[in-house]
Amino acid sequence: KPLPVECVVRGYLAGSGWKEYQQTQSVCGEKLPAGLKLASQLPQPIFTPATKSESGHDLNITWTECRRTLSDGQAEHVRDLSLQIYAAGRDHAAQRGIIVADTKFEFGVVDGKLLLIDECLTPDSSRFWPADQYVLEQSPPSFDKQFVRDYLETLDWDKTPPAPSLPKEVIAKTSAKYVEAFERLTGERLR
Predict the structure, then answer these.
(1) Which of 94-98, 123-127, 181-185 has the highest mean pLDDT?
(2) Which of 119, 118, 87, 116 is CA-nearest to residue 100?
(3) What are the sequence ranges of the domains in the chain?
(4) At what angle do helices 168-186 and 146-153 cross, to 10 degrees?
(5) Which residues pair with 50 in a beta bridge?
(6) Which CATH class is domain 2-140?
(7) CA atoms within 13 A on the CB side of 82
(8) Are the C-beta atoms of 1 and 109 separated by less than 8 Å?
(9) Is residue 59 a contact partner of residue 69, using CB atoms and an 8 Å limit?
(10) What is the mean pLDDT of residues 157-183?
(11) Taking CA 82 as the corner, what is the angle to CA 16 and CA 43, rounded to the nearest 5 degrees?
């Protein structure tokens, strides 16, 4: 059974975390230092849980809300596992020239055991930046679905499903970004 909380770990300030920080100097109730900029590396990775709304968009929640939503001990367990998995993925990617700015994990319970139940550290669940193009205060180019998001932002679409069809060139460029991420992270050529 899937847990009703998505486990987001942020190592850098980007996306909805950056928007929230600009307004509150915090993300999901986690107070952050003053003066951080877009794409700032955080002093340490933070766990910023989220939940799905009726419309399907993620809603950031506080640690207190996360603990109320999950059973005793589950919140701490998924937080700790999320931070550990993020750190391992971040370190692996860094050796290959990729920054893992943030990522999302989903967990579930089967026969009383907590399991990672969805993709892990992919371009669909993570924000990957090429380390050699990272510049503070700029949204770096990415190897993830941000390219599609940016395209959709140019349309007159209210984000109500279904999403508009994507042009062939957007699909091709997104596919190329995913392939490049795979090849950099694994050191293998996609055949």
Answers:
(1) 94-98
(2) 87
(3) 2-140
(4) 160
(5) 6, 60
(6) alpha beta
(7) 29
(8) yes
(9) no
(10) 89
(11) 60
